[in-house]
Amino acid sequence: MSPYHREVEPYEVRQATGADLAGARSVMLDTFYQEFGYGYRPEWHGDVIDLDGAYLRPERHALFVAVKGDEVVATTGVRATAPASPPHPTWLAARYPDGSTAQLFRVYVRPEHRRCGLARALVDLATQFVARTPGYDRLYLHTDTRIAGAEPFWRSMAAEVHDARDGDPITFQTVHFEIPLAR
User: Cα(12)–Cα(67) distance, rounded to whole angstroms?
Assistant: First the structure.
């Protein structure tokens, strides 16, 4: 059994296997269409089409899932990917270089399974993975604060690095965070 495993009754929260990929992809795509309202965008979501190549095969990447019975109900991914500039500021990309930066992706929970501690458990496992993986110095993420509950959730677990909100309700209202690594 992987060291990245925990029980959150009645859920199992663990590192994903190939058998979990279809369910994880379904959670992600449903989030894009039903929660975010803009659907699948190849320029942003290429990892979702090739979850195996993005998260399972690279040794410093990982995908974590929460499963209830045989159903994947939540996801979190880790990749050795720095924030891109543009769209993010140049100084931010320089602070989080490729290779030594782990970035959290796809922290999604199906609506009917929220408020059960799944996102926190998944992020905890992902943080442990990053802390134990050689070569990572920092764990970075960004979130769109228009998503209900996203900003208070991340503020409870991470330190704000940059608030990029511009006041325009149509554009992304992004806040960038770093999660401390306990070593």
Answer: 5
